[in-house]
Amino acid sequence: MSSFLTPSRRQFLALAGAGAAAGLLPFGANAAPDTRNTDTVRLTWGFHGLTLIAKERGTFEKALAEKGIKVEWLGPFPNHAPTLQAVTGGSADFGFGGSTTPALAAIIAGSPLVFSQFVLYEPRTTAIIAKDGSGIDKVSDLVGKSVAVNRSGLGEFLLVAALEKNGIDRSKVKFVYLNPPDAAPALASGKVDAWSMWSPGVDIARLEYKAHDIFLEGRDLEFYIDYSSYVTSRKFSQENSQIVRAVAAAYEEEAKWVNGNVVEAETIVQKRAGYSDVIRDQFIERRRTYKLIPVTDTAFVADLQKAADWLVARKILPEPITVSDHLAQF
Q1: Higher model confidence: residue 18 or residue 120?
Q2: Which of 158, 174, 217, 327 has the fewest CB atoms lying closer than 10 Å?
């Protein structure tokens, strides 16, 4: 195994100064021995987002293959929580780039997960929707109604934020905890009155079930609380820092391609996910972009810490967590 060369004191100070100027942690603060104990990485995927595009295009795999790393794709997964369970249970090495909120909840519950990379995507399209003709046209109409959300996830967070913004006590609305595969038919059949969901599920439901937005994250919420993230196990990051670093770099390159090739990227997702041209064209018009953020970005980590504190204060997360204790060392 190779190892990092030990820098001189002058080199260390120069690197630390440059990192501080860039808002990053100083050299060594998030570094680990240069390790690699496998030639295979097991990645989870679902029918949306950057990970699906990376899987379908093949450039991501080729980039890792050049470093002697074989990619095994595991999925599809319906949402982030099952990928976290797969990583925790040892059947996968990385989550599929989902919400930070369930990742934080899993860590609090004892899962040995660490963040390896963060993602900001625009526009933010998570929404609370209700069927046309339901009489639910604004957040206040949800009083006495039931809303499907994923527990400790993006759906629950958005509903809590919407109620808080409109001065409505959450006890006046029934939270129905369902994962997306169960929530969609529940809305269609009328078993729940509304659904808090992210793209592309919310876009498909809006069209197929003739529904409309009650609250739209990018339009109605002025701040970020939930972000996207890649996670791995602490053990994997410690034993395979080379692979963690290579995966992060490959996703960074994939994001650059997607941002410069929106039509092609959205067509790739549509073909695999199987939704209509109408939905695809909506995504193309929005020109969704991805910005990948390293775990060494101290300003971002501070923002995520504020978000975690917000979630704890509102009992979406059960107890406090120090985000900086759960960053991959690579």
Answers
A1: 120
A2: 174
Q: Name the residue with tokens 């990970």.
A: 51
What are the structure tokens assigned to 199, written together?
């793209």
H-helix or E-strand containing 311? helix 298-313
Segment 62-80, tens digit of pLDDT? 999 999 999 999 999 998 9
Q: What is the pLDDT of residues 245-297, one digit of tens each?
A: 999 999 999 999 999 999 999 999 999 999 999 999 999 999 999 999 999 99
Reduce the secondary structure of 25-60 to three states and give it as a string: CCCCCCCCCCCCCCCEEEEECCCCHHHHHHHHHCHH
Distance in angstroms (rounded) separating the CA atoms of residues 64 and 40: 10
Integer Cα distance of 251 and 235 in angstroms: 21
First and final C-alpha spacing in the chain: 15
Q: Which helix (H) or strand (E) holds 300?
A: helix 298-313
Per-residue pLDDT, 6: 31
Work out the number of other CB atoms within 10 angstroms of the CB of residue 79: 24
DSSP 172: G
Beta pairing class for 228-233 and 98-99: antiparallel
Which residues, in sequence order, are bridge partners of residue 167? none
**E strand segments, 52-170:** 70-74, 98-99, 113-122, 127-131, 146-149
Quote the CA–CA distance of 211 and 37 in Å, as a whole number. Answer: 50
CA 121 – CA 139 distance, rounded (Å): 25
User: Any idea which of 14-28, 145-159, 298-312 has the lowest mean pLDDT?
Assistant: 14-28
pLDDT computed for residue 32 by the predictor: 59
104, 314 contact by CB (below 8 A)? no
In the predicted model, is pLDDT for residue 19 greater than 70? Answer: no
**Residue 149: CB atoms within 10 Å:** 25
Neighbouring C-beta atoms of residue 63, cutoff 10 Å: 19
